[in-house]
Recover the amino acids of this structure.
């Protein structure tokens, strides 16, 4: 009898366990981090009838391969998900026609071309000036949009680092608790394992890692270089590096006694990886491209204006803020925070057409030996020895000026020639009459000339020349006097002194007067042509009356369609288009990668759920099954009870 | 045995979400008529479209100057034509004056007519445009081309021609130097000095036979000068005509080019509407099917759960 009772009791108990486990499965059916419990029943060996049933292993059903796969596909997907929406928004902004600098530039050329038909028209000058102001504003807008985006990415990364650190701490705790409970997986440790899976998944959204499970059940997480961010209850606490040594990049790492150890290259997935590459590869690079374009536009417009004469007869000045002020020049150099030496350096822009969209690092191997590294392609563009200061080093369109100071081996300076180009695009010309559309030189053939010689100003090359040192005057005004058909001399029209004598004229091909064979160069170029007779004269003077002179204006207009950017290959409109399309391409790439990685992640999820997921309909069926089995076992007890009742009733008689 | 109805339902809902996205893209194409809503959808195609757009902007940018050029050239053409007419009248008057039977008083009235013509021609030379700038001063557009000083007419403008752009690599002459239009290239005399000399000559009384000989000689010289000046005007008129043709050709070329580019732009960027609409219908149908499947699975799941 007792064995019957025990058998019945064991049946009830087993069914009860089963019902509990199944109910727990059902209750957690929608918990994505829960791995279903499965169980087996074993017969209890006993005397000749057997002793009933007992619950055997309760398993937490997992497949390590499926789990690892899910973690890695999540890390991959999270990388793109983190930036997909950001970059789409940026692209929409930049792609918008209203902001398109290409459009504004094309309009500016058209307005200038019309201005050149009536250079004295105040209305037309105003229109051009306003258009230039518009261009400057657009540069500032787009530039600050990108800079703002960079700041927001940095903020986002800071938050992600904090979250990662918190998750790591939580994982450390769970690891420890699991370790304490021992190697065998029990009902107590199972919820902890579920919780750890949850934390690992959340961590995968932030950072990539390899997972190793130790013998004692605790988990170790390593980065690609083997650095452990989690081992037992030891966790790493990540931080972001100071920006000063790498303004174009975000650096994640750990603070050690030796200083900051960078781990950025060992993080290949997760939101942090996405944000880091978005910052450097897309944002920082695009900003340089925009800044370079802004510098080229300012510089070319300024330079051309300074070669001309304005409506008031004065030499032209700056249209935009000078790109080579001493403040800007020294602001382009950032000394490393680890430098032992101290020096005064500055970067001046010489040829915007040859500027690269790249920063440079000037590094010293000792007190005088330096190397200049171009970061975009990793080439050393200059190396040398400093024999004495000051020293000028010209390369890639800029000039590095080392004024004074000392250098110690290991010192580094970061050079950023394009830095701030768009943000500093300020228009300093406020008076439209100061747009210098004319040439400051006018020439005339004497009405008494016998020959048919023609004199032309072919170019103004240097208004800084002494010939222009007094406003509205040419020093000296000149008379070209022909002594024969092939020889002439230059005479000052002010005092008739001879400036240059015995100059040769080629009637067949014409002649350029300056610079003369004697080296006289007044900063402009004159061409003579035609058949000239002895006694013919020509005059060269300041263009005082030339309000309708548009020759410099025509040259300004030509600037809009010349290749002036990136080794002089691109014009302004195309350069902006490239800037905008680079962002579009990056968006396109991100979206394609996002779609592809999403599919892989979803497939990995499906596989994991196939193994570990709870299927409610199956559990419900099992619930019914064990309900019956419970009732059947209960029936055994009933039988026992009835049998006992019969026995008792027999014994009472 | 595992019955993965939940997984299947999850899978169906993923399909539905993809389908809804596809429908979103098609609807955007249908309402904007454009293949691409964002450059990032197809950066290479977008680059082509933007290049064409930029080219069109640059070409259309010359429209205003082409109109200005046309107007200016027609002004110059009428000035040239009138000048030639006036020279014709002067020639007639000159012939009259060479008639030996005239007396001083006859010659005075001819001189008066010549003076009238001189002033008319002077006003043509000193023409201003709508901005108040002189047309025949070269670059010195605020300086009157011809003024009278001590009995002579002096040119105050510059020697150079002012040009304007009417195309990407095309310029035409806009203002001309008056001393090339209103002077004879060979002698260098300007038409005003010549006419003014004639007026003085005809106002001088003829008394002696020497006076008569002098008159005849000077009138002959004037005739030669007049021919040269007239030829100069005719040359100028031809020049202006040639430039007019150039502007007209440039205008035609520009219009054709712009039209071509606009057609190309359309073909690059427009969505194939019939295709879009038929795809849209297809996708909607498929979405319905997916939705039905999802609903049926849900029913199945419910029945399994309830029927025990």
């Amino acid at each position: 009898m007792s064995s019957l009772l025990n058998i019945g009791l064991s049946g009830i108990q087993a069914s009860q366990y089963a019902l509990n486990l199944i109910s727990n499965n059902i209750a957690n059916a929608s918990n994505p981090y829960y791995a279903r419990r499965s169980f087996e029943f074993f017969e209890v060996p006993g005397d000749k009838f057997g002793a009933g049933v007992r619950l055997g292993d309760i398993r937490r059903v997992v497949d390590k391969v499926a789990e690892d796969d899910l973690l890695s596909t999540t890390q991959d997907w999270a990388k793109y998900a983190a930036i997909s929406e950001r970059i789409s928004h940026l692209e929409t902004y930049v792609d918008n026609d209203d902001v398109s600098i290409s459009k504004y530039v094309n309009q500016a050329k058209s307005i200038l071309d019309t201005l050149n038909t009536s250079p004295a028209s105040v209305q037309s000058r105003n229109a051009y000036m306003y258009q230039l102001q518009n261009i400057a504003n657009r540069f500032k807008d787009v530039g600050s949009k990108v800079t703002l985006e960079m700041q927001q990415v940095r903020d986002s990364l800071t938050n992600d680092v904090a979250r990662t650190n918190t998750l790591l701490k939580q994982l450390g705790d769970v690891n420890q608790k699991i370790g304490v409970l021992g190697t065998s997986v029990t009902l107590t440790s199972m919820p902890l394992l579920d919780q750890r899976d949850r934390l690992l998944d959340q961590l995968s959204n932030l950072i990539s890692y390899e997972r190793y499970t130790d013998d004692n059940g605790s988990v170790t997480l390593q980065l690609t270089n083997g650095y452990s961010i989690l081992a037992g209850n030891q966790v790493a606490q990540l931080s972001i590096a100071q920006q000063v040594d790498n303004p174009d990049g975000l650096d994640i790492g750990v603070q050690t006694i030796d200083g900051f150890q960078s781990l950025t290259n060992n993080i290949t997935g997760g939101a942090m990886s996405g944000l880091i590459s978005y910052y450097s590869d897309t944002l920082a690079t695009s900003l340089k491209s925009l800044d370079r374009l802004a510098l080229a536009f300012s510089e070319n417009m300024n330079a051309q204006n300074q070669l001309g004469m304005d409506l008031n007869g004065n030499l032209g000045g700056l249209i935009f803020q000078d790109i080579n002020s001493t403040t800007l020049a020294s602001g382009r150099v950032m000394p490393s925070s680890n430098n032992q030496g101290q020096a005064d350096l500055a970067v001046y822009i010489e040829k915007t057409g040859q500027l690269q969209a790249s920063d440079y690092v000037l590094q010293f191997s000792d007190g005088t030996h330096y190397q200049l590294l171009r970061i975009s392609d990793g080439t050393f563009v200059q190396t040398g020895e400093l024999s004495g200061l000051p020293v000028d080093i010209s390369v890639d369109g800029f000039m590095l000026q080392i004024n004074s100071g000392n250098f110690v081996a290991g010192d580094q300076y970061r050079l950023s020639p394009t830095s701030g180009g768009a943000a500093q695009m300020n228009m300093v010309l406020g008076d439209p009459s100061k747009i210098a559309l004319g040439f400051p030189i006018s020439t005339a053939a004497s009405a008494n000339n016998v020959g048919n010689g023609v004199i032309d100003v072919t170019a103004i090359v240097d208004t800084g020349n002494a010939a222009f040192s007094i406003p509205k005057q040419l020093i000296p005004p000149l008379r070209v006097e022909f002594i024969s058909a092939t020889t002439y001399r230059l005479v000052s029209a002010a005092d008739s002194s001879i400036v240059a004598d015995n100059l040769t004229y080629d009637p067949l091909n014409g002649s350029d007067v300056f610079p003369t064979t004697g080296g006289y160069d007044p900063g402009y170029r004159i061409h003579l042509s035609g058949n000239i007779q002895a006694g013919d004269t020509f005059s060269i003077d300041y263009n005082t009356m030339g309000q309708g002179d548009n020759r410099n204006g025509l040259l300004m207009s030509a600037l809009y369609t010349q290749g002036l950017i990136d080794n002089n290959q691109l014009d302004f409109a195309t350069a902006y288009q490239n800037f905008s399309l680079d962002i579009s391409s990056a968006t396109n790439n991100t979206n394609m990668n996002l779609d592809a990685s999403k599919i892989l992640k979803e497939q990995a999820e499906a596989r994991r759920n196939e193994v570990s997921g709870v299927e409610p309909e199956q559990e419900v069926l099992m619930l019914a099954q064990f309900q019956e089995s419970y009732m059947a076992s209960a029936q055994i007890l009933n039988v026992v009870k009835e049998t006992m009742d019969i026995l008792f009733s027999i014994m009472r008689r | 045995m595992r019955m993965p109805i939940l997984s299947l339902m999850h899978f169906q809902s993923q399909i539905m979400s993809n389908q809804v996205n596809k429908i979103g893209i098609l609807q955007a194409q249908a309402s904007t008529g454009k293949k691409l809503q964002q450059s990032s959808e197809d950066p290479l195609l977008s680059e082509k479209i933007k290049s064409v757009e930029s080219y069109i902007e640059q070409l259309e940018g010359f429209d205003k100057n082409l109109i200005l050029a046309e107007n200016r050239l027609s002004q110059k053409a009428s000035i040239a034509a009138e000048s030639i007419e006036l020279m014709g009248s002067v020639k007639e008057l000159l012939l009259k004056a060479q008639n030996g039977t005239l007396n001083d008083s006859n010659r005075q009235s001819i001189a008066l007519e010549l003076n009238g013509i001189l002033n008319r021609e002077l006003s043509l030379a000193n023409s201003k445009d709508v901005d108040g700038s002189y047309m025949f001063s070269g670059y010195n557009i605020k300086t009157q081309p011809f003024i009278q000083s001590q009995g002579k007419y002096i040119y105050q403008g510059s020697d150079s021609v002012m040009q304007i752009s009417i195309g990407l690599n095309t310029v035409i002459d806009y203002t001309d130097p008056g001393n090339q239009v209103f002077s004879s290239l060979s002698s260098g005399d300007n038409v005003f000095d010549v006419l003014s000399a004639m007026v003085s000559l005809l106002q001088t009384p003829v008394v002696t036979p020497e006076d008569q000989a002098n008159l005849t000689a000077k009138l002959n010289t004037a005739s030669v000068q007049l021919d040269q000046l007239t030829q100069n005007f005719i040359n100028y008129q031809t020049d202006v005509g040639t430039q007019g043709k150039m502007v007209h050709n440039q205008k035609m070329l520009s219009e054709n080019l712009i039209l071509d580019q606009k057609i190309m732009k359309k073909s690059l960027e427009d969505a194939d509407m019939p295709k879009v609409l038929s795809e849209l219908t297809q996708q909607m149908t498929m979405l319905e099917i997916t939705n039905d499947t999802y609903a049926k699975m849900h029913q199945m799941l419910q029945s399994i759960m309830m029927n025990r």
Notes: Chain A touches chain B through 64 residues (CB under 8 Å). The two ends of chain A are 21 Å apart (CA to CA).
